[in-house]
């Protein structure tokens, strides 16, 4: 798996200086690894249990008013997960030509998977409706969440 490969590479001696700029002790290392794993898992947007847990973490993080370090870390972690999600679908929020380019690639990938028997659904069936659903139920709510938390300041408005 790519995360395991990336982690092994990061732990290689040649990246000692890079590691020292990321973390300085065992506790920070564990925290960094946790953020890395959570951010990677954040890209799995269709797994219902992960989505529910993510929603619960968001609600809990932004419901509390505590100014402490733990509260800030909780908020930062869930915001990072949502930024990762936004970057995963960034083509949907950019110029039409960018959206079209990446959507055509996704369609071709799914069509090939269907032709080779690796996917159950033919992408030609319901593609347009699926895109509308995705915007209404994922892209727009995600953008609204990121705007509402204020992470981008006034530049987001």
Question: What descriptive keywords fit this protein?
Answer:
about 160 residues, globular, about 70% helix, mainly alpha
Q: Would you mind describing this structure in some detail?
A:
With 157 residues, the chain is mostly helical. It has seven helices and no strands. α3 packs parallel to α5 (69-88) and α5 (69-88) runs antiparallel to α7.
Structural class: mainly alpha
Radius of gyration: 19 Å
How many strands in all?
Answer: 0
Strand composition percent? under 5%
| Separation of the first and last Cα atoms | 38 Å
Q: What general form does the structure show? A: globular
Helix % is: over 70%
Number of helices: 7
Element order, helices and strands? HHHHHHH
- Biggest sheet record: none
Mean pLDDT: 89
- Unreliable runs: none
Entry summary:
The protein contains 7 helices and no strands.
SSE layout and pairings?
Blueprint: H1 2-10, H2 16-22, H3 26-41, H4 48-63, H5 69-88, H6 96-115, H7 127-148
Helix pairs in contact: 3-5, 4-5, 5-7
